[in-house]
Amino acid sequence: MRPMTLDIDFVRAQFPAFSEPSLAGKAFFDNAGGSYPCRFVVERLERFYRERKVQPYEAYDASRVAGEEMDEARVRLAAMLGVQTDELSFGPSTTQNVYVLAQAFREWLSPGDVIVVTNQDHEANSGAWRKLANAGIEVREWQVDPATGHLDPADLASLLTGAKLLCFPHCSNVVAEINDVAAITRIAHDAGAVVCVDGVSYAPHGLPNVGALGADIYLFSAYKTYGPHQGLMVIRRALGETLPNQGHSFNAGTLYKRFTPAGPDHAQVAASAGMADYVDHLFASLGKSHAESAERAEAVHDAMRAREIELLEPLLDFVSSRNSLRLIGPSDAAIRAPTVALHHERPGAALAAQLAAHDINAAGGDFYAVRPLSAMGVDPAHGVLRLSFTHYTSSEEVDRLIRALDHVL
Ligand SMILES: Cc1ncc(COP(=O)(O)O)c(C=O)c1O
Predict the structure, then answer these.
(1) Ligand 1 contact, 95 CB (< 6 A)
(2) Which residues contact 67 (CB under 8 A, 6 or more apart)?
(3) Any atom of ligand 1 within 6 Å of the Cβ of 122
(4) What is the pLDDT of residue 400?
(5) Using 50, 70 and 90 to split pLDDT, how confident is the model at 288?
(6) Whose CA is nearest to atom 16 of ligand 1?
(7) 93 Cα–ligand 1 center, Å
(8) pLDDT tens digits, one per residue of 99-142
(9) Contact, 366 vs 380, CB < 8 A?
(10) Do residues 189 and 196 make contact, with C-beta atoms less than 8 angstroms apart?
(11) Helices in 153-245 by DSSP H: which ranges?
């Protein structure tokens, strides 16, 4: 079925940044670094700080409502992600969530056990796992094709022999190819391994149905997904109840507290419900009447993706017309996120600075994707120019970006 079409004026009206005078005229192409937050998140955060910035879950009104809003975020987002409420937890960032998980695996695994990591991942889903080698764990690497950045699932058969865990990205923050999480997870499960999927570069392009994908662990960062600065982590029950608890011992019976040892940022957890508000408003704007949470999220996901693919095509056409540019990752818009990393003889950061003079807000560097860039022959110190956008980007902004690139290159 053809996805419904998003109304770009309605979409942009949901983001205070698009009516902020100090940002006027600046086309934003650094979304993979951090997206603009939607108004629901900003409003909820402000209301929480103003009206209920107290210890939550006590009997008095301000405290009770604070706790209810925190619960609301978990209930609604978990339902959209196709998992149970207590399978979703909030931590300070994805990097920190992975770090805690790696400590749990360190206790759970035995010397000689095998885990598999990739060299396509952002360092967040790589470094902490690789450190398990210090505890005698054998760490194998699933390697990208040096020319394309592609991870070939056919390589997994031998790598996964005897492995307990496979860590991989839904989508790399520089290669941007969308990995087939469901298929890769099936291969891992058949081999007896659980999977940990970094969804940080994917979730801003539509919330995935983690339940349907089958991943045991799925992480993403709310601040790149129109929300506050939080890391969201799904841990499916069977694994979450098996891995050793990393929280306070008396909280071991509460699944969503087992892998987030820090006290939660109450206001930001509560404000995360604004991400669910946004999905619901977009769903309503598509003219649909009623559906379950995961179906609403899926309809919005499909509409976001359709719009992004349409916007991405002219940019990729421009890139392929320039011999001086090397596109990192695939040139087919349908199989990648609109996160376009480009290598050029000039350093990525220098190109980004030149674009800024043309009112294009983009970024250059290695983006903590040192391993994939190195594997593809790009010196991380030289870096890439990264042009990243989302469904809220206008076609006029993409046109302006292409004109500015034409000037600068
Ligand atoms: C693909 C990917 N994974 C993980 C991270 C780390 O996320 P956080 O900043 O929440 O630790 C990033 C941040 O840029 C990322 O792009």
Answers:
(1) yes
(2) 56, 57, 58
(3) yes
(4) 98
(5) confident
(6) 173
(7) 8
(8) 999 999 999 999 999 999 999 999 999 999 999 999 999 999 99
(9) yes
(10) no
(11) 156-159, 181-190, 210-213, 237-240
